Amino acid sequence: MSFDDISVLLLWTAIAIYTLGFLAFTVDLARRSELAIAAQDAKARTLVAAGGGGQSIEDIRAEEAAAKIALEAAPSKRGRYLFARLGVVLTTIGFLFHVGADVTRGIAAGRVPWSNNYEFALTGTLLVVMVFLTVLVKYDLRFLGAFINGLIVILLGGAALAYYVEVVPLSDPLKSVWLVIHVFVASLASAFFALAFALSVVQLLQSRRERNALAAVGTDAAPRTRLPFLRTLPSAEVLESLAYRFAIIGFVLWTFTLIAGAIWANDAWGRYWGFDTKEVWTFVIWVVYAGYIHARATRGWRGTRSAWLSIVGFTAVIFNFTIVNQFFQGLHSYSGLPS
Amino acid sequence: MSRRSSEDSVSETVDGPLRPNDHLDQTGQTDQPGDDGGSASAFSGGQPVLGVVGWLRWGWRQLTSMRTALVLLLLLAIAAIPGSLVPQRSADPNGVTQWRATNPDLYPTFETLQLFDVYSSVWFSAIYILLFISLIGCVLPRTKHHWKALRARPPRTPARLSRLTDHRETTAGVPEGEDAAGHAAHAVDLAEAQLRSARYRVERYDRGGVASVSAERGYLRETGNLIFHGALVGVLISVGIGGGFTYTGQTVITEGDGFVNSLGLGYTSFNPGRFVDTEALTPYSISLDRFDVTYAKPGTPGSGQAGDFEAHVTTRFPGQEAEDQVIEVNHPITMAGDRVYLMGNGYAPTITVRNRAGTVVFSEAVPFLPQSPTMTSQGVVKVPDTGGKQLGLVGFFYPTVAKLPSGALTSAYGDLVDPRLTFFVYEGDLGINNGDARSVYALDTDGMTEIAGRNADTPSLELSPGQTVDLPGGRGTVTFEDETKNGAPESVKRYVSLSIHNDSSAPWVLFFAILSLLGLFTALFVPRRRMWVKATPDGDDVRIEYAGLARGEDPAIGVAVADLAERHGKALGDEPASAPATPANVN
Ligand code: HEM
């Protein structure tokens, strides 16, 4: 059995474990929903007695404050959601197998395991999980677990099925320290963008729920929500500022990627910038995130609109990685896929 | 125009970072022409009367607003996309030709829309030029403002600190033998020292027994922001001006041959910028001694893949010793400020043509262009002076010949295992006498008749190294020379294509790019905040307040205020008894 065979085996094991992690986190969200509904029902009963259905502003603010404290609580002081903890454990185990898969692939190839699309996916998703688990130490973002695990299963499973290629020697332009630096930093940036994206999505859901909840204040109607677990999550504003923090880390790394790429291009292709397809998309992504940062500081754009920019930005990252690598003509034809 | 913060009570004397008027920090909405805050003269009787100046001023204000910058940024992102979908003349001229052939109907429309030259198109340029005007119009006043702010003292302590979100309050007892005012001053002394050692700029505002210190840090945030935006302008200018001084040339060198850096002598193509003095090129020379390449052996991973390209060259400056160098992918060599890149390689079979009389009318190593990863290559031989009609040969070269099921030849492997050369032969007018520049890789067969090949009585010629075949009708012979006979290591010579660049602006672009990265880093990660500690005598006690105000994004401001309160409380508590600080606001 070659190292590459071992790598593939470890990879599928990791995917299986991530799938279980996804299930655990999904159950967690469902149970939080029940919890939230139960709390709402209890509230409604007392309120019906008192003659009102909606929450009061104070209730809403108290809920938000509690969620913020929960978000920033130290790991030992967090809500003891059984399935969330199970999810974290499974994600961690999946991560270890994933590391194994990545390292054995690197050993099999005798170089860094990020030089074709299959390996970009392998390492990129690894970094997403790594960043997620690291951030968990500081913030209780377990509510993103289902999302992250789901994303990883899709990307990793998709890559293993559609992008897998055997180890082949590097083509000459890739023999450069910049392969190690530029591609790694790009993947790391993408990992932060992924987290920001997830938070922006939840932010949008949350802000819609908040609008409904505020509209229901003082009325008899209980606010409508299709996703009651949102009530246990931080407010849209808190989610937004968290998303922003990850996005700017991603942005700085992406800026570095852009510059490092130009330096590499200057060595490999004889010019630092030539609007090659991949360069164009790297630039587009950079500009979108610059737009996002500006939007956050522009009156009328903060909140929902800027969140959409974060979503567009990450969509472009994924598009760049899949469609552009695979189907667009250009000098960066390193996907290793038959064209 | 001195109020620049939404916290009116706080900003009486406070000059925060000047930002465009629709920046979140700013008060008041300025959307209407004439509504530019200070110029009351633009109004008469409630009706805005706008002169040309008013409109210009309004236009400028719109252009330098955050919203415009944002919209232009988003437009720039969208406008860049078509260039990745449609082949671009600058990066892929052949792609454009091909596109034209497949979409003849759409081509004129696309051409009119400049879709093949997106990045130099009118519309793309308009967007980025507007963006950069906006950028400069935004950064200049902010720089001036920041320059002043850098030398200003931290602002007066606001009257009511409790109005700030991040605020804490505690009461300290006054120790025996001290009066409340004295103790208040003492407490603030302590806070001042602590803030100073935490690298705050501090200013005391004591008034009538109430002591307070105002502190500010993180000026670097705005500095970074300005450096970042300014460096972007630097990048653009370096690229723009640099383009005029840049030149790029291509050349092809066959093993054993050389190149001299001089227009007319060495280059197959040369694109100088507007200000390049093409007469002043340093006439160094480069000759190719050997080109090495390794192919992954059949049966190994990546079988047939070529790599480890190495052009072994001898370089020489006039009047100096020759030097042996190696040019590799990713490792260009530098000659007199020029960077010399290895861009491609291929085979250059040596072909000799003799006419009816047996006289040599052509003998050259002809570079063939690779068409496939296994190096099936195509080349053209033009023989103008045969003593009779002109001859043109279109050749295919297969380094390792193999037969497809259809009977056609192909190359199975990139290395020279079983080289084979085939020719279609044409006779007639090569069309090179009328002065038109013709590609050495293409033969215009319009004025010619095929005498050997698919559409002729004689099949195409097929040769192995060392072999000679007859041209049909006794027109002469064609020989595929075996170079090992001339002492070469391989039967067929190889050639390299080199690209020679001189771009003296590149270091500047890099400099500004790195500067912008550093600026960005400080702009995003240095928190800018104000802190106040105020001690008010309150009967027998002293009321101590701590408050903070973030200038821009600052997730840790709450924690910072809490830390300050705690550290200060502790330091103070080490002396007399005092109550622990409690958060005054929960948010
Ligand atoms: C090439 C175009 C531009 C790019 C790529 C760009 C990019 C950025 C980035 C990445 C930031 C965040 C880093 C920081 O805070 O320093 C930023 C902030 C900022 N930019 Fe720009 N910018 C551009 C043009 C402009 C223009 C035209 C204006 C003025 C209208 C402007 C005003 C600002 C302001 C005020 C901030 C601070 C935002 C805040 O308070 O968070 N920028 N810009």
Describe what is shown at a glance.
The complex is a heterodimer of chains A (339) and B (587). Chain A is mainly alpha-helical and 339 residues long. Chain A has 9 helices and no strands.
Overview of the molecule:
The complex is a heterodimer of chains A (339) and B (587). Chain A is mainly alpha-helical. Chain A has one domain (3-327). Chain A has 9 helices and no strands. In chain A, helix 1 packs antiparallel against helix 3 and helix 3 (82-109) packs antiparallel against helix 4. Chain A is globular and about 70 Å long. With 587 residues, chain B is α+β, with helices and mostly antiparallel strands. Chain B has 4 domains: 56-137; 153-218 and 527-572, Kinase associated domain 1, KA1 (TATA-Binding Protein, 2-Layer Sandwich), CATH 3.30.310.80; 223-244 and 506-523, no CATH class; 247-502, no CATH class. Helix content of chain B is 27%, strand content 29%. Chain B is built from 10 helices and 29 strands. Chain B has helices at residues 52-63, 66-80, 82-85, 93-102, 107-112, 122-151, 180-197, 219-245, 506-525, 557-573, and strands at 43-44, 47-48, 166-173, 201-204, 211-217, 247-254, 258-260, 269-272, 285-295, 306-316, 323-327, 333-335, 338-348, 350-355, 360-365, 369-370, 377-383, 390-398, 401-403, 409-411, 420-428, 448-452, 461-463, 468-470, 476-480, 493-502, 529-538, 541-550, 582-583. In chain B, strands 4-5-27-28-3-29 form a 6-stranded antiparallel β-sheet, covered by helices on one side. In chain B, strands 16, 17, 18, 21, 22 and 23 form a 6-stranded antiparallel β-sheet that branches. Chain B starts with 42 loop residues before the first strand and ends with a strand. Residues 1-14, 28-45 and 576-587 of chain B have low confidence and may be disordered. Chains A and B meet through helix 7 and helix 8 of A and helix 2, helix 3, strand 10, strand 13 and helix 9 of B. Protoporphyrin IX containing FE (HEM) sits between chains B (19-20, 23, 64-66, 69, 73, 131, 134-135, 138, 225, 228-229, 232, 520, 523-524, 552-553) and A (290, 293-294, 297).
